[in-house]
Amino acid sequence: MQPRMKNRATVLTGALFLCVAAVVTACPHRPNEASARNATTSPQTPMITEENMKKNEAEIRDLIDGFVRAISAKDIDGVMSVYAPELVAFDIVPPLQYEGAEAFRKVWQEIFDLFQDPIRYEIRDLSITAGDDVAFSHSFNRLNGTTKNGRKSGLWVRWTACFRKTNGRWRIAHVQVSVPVDLASGKAVLDLKP
């Protein structure tokens, strides 16, 4: 395997592990000992088929497309509809984490209040990997617009989202937004482009 491909596989494996860990941590239901015993004695569930994987990926892509439209329209309810109620979010603004979609709603409302109309939200290099009920995606995302005080903004961020399917609907259970940091200066590097 070429070094670049091996590195990408390692990164993707690590991202999937982190997403699964975040989804399990965010999930309010923990299996009890009896359900764990039943899981080991019941017939093994079949692996996800290629057709189901493509269907799940398409559903998640539609969810993300709706998310982008809602951001551009400053539709707070549309934005929040993509998040699971028990969302855990690691954003680029403090604190270290937001617990629950309602806490994260305030971040989006502050963003909408900060910007003049119109705003544009853009996603590049979106990659989605979906199982039957857990999935993850990563991409470069940018909110582009002018703040109410006239400052132009177009910061690219790294965006990783972990999805869980509940009652037939995909929702984001964990999201992580980051920017690179110059370790020598301790400052965020905000001018990089994909």
Task: Write structural notes for this entry.
- The protein has 194 residues and is of the alpha+beta class.
- It has one domain (3-26, 49-180): Nuclear Transport Factor 2, Chain: A.
- It has five helices and nine strands, in the order ααααββαβββββββ.
- β8 and β9 (187-188) form a beta hairpin.
- The longest helix has 24 residues, at 3-26.
- The two termini are 25 Å apart.
- Residues 1-42 have low confidence and may be disordered.
List the helices and strands and how they pair.
Layout: H1 3-26, H2 33-41, H3 50-72, H4 76-80, E1 83-90, E2 98-99, H5 101-114, E3 120-130, E4 134-146, E5 152-153, E6 156-166, E7 169-178, E8 181-182, E9 187-188
Parallel strand pairs: 1-7
Antiparallel strand pairs: 1-2, 3-4, 4-5, 4-6, 6-7, 8-9
Quick tags:
194 residues, alpha+beta, Nuclear Transport Factor 2, Chain: A, seven-stranded mixed beta sheet, two-stranded antiparallel sheet, 5 helices, 9 strands, globular, disordered N terminus
